Fold:
Amino acid sequence: EAGVAQSPRYKIIEKRQSVAFWCNPISGHATLYWYQQILGQGPKLLIQFQNNGVVDDSQLPKDRFSAERLKGVDSTLKIQPAKLEDSAVYLCASTLGLVTYEQYFGPGTRLTVT
Amino acid sequence: GQNIDQPTEMTATEGAIVQINCTYQTSGFNGLFWYQQHAGEAPTFLSYNVLDGLEEKGRFSSFLSRSKGYSYLLLKELQMKDSASYLCAVRDPSNDYKLSFGAGTTVTVRA
Structure:
C-alpha cells in the first residue's frame, strides 16, 4: 500500500513570496490533515478535511494560508505571502475516517523562508 | 484547551531501559497516542491507549492512567536506532477528535 505522498520535499523562498505544497493521501482515506511543525515543537494542526469539506481550520492563519481538497482526494496548502516565522516542516496526514485512531503521515515539506 | 507536557531530552545507554513520561490536561479524552519521529522524517505510530493499564508491543510498552492524566512510554533493550523524538498526543472528542501533540522528547542512545 502506497503511503502519503508530499511534494516538494524542500523549498526555500524569500519572505513575501508565495509557495504551494501538495499532498496525496493513502487511497480510500477520507480524512486529511495539514500540520505545521516548527523545529523543536510537536505538530500543530492547521486544517482538517473530511472528503472535500473542511472539518476544522481554527488554527489556520487565513490571512495568508489557504488549503483546498476539491475532489476529496489530493490537497494543496498555499502560503501567500510568506513570513519568516512560517519556516517549518509541513506535514500531511490521513486516516480512513474521522475517528479512526491511526494517522499516517507523509514525509513532509521543509520550508525555509529567508 | 489542551496542555500536554513531556521532558525535552533523555539520554540512555544501548541495552538499557528508558521511560518517557507524558502528562496531559484536556477538555475531553478519547485516547492517547505515542509516535516516533526520526530526525527529518515523518512521525510513525507506536501505540494507542484508551483504557487504563499497560499495553505491550515488543520492546515498547505504553501505560495510561486517565484519573491522573498520565502516560508513559517504556523502551526496553535500547538500540542505536531508537534515537529519535517521541511524541505524546491526546485525542479530544470535544475538539472534533483532533490530536493535540506535546513538543516531543528527544532520546539519544549512546554506545
In short: The interface with chain A takes residues 4, 30-31, 33, 40-45, 48, 87, 89, 91, 96-104 of chain B (CB under 8 Å).
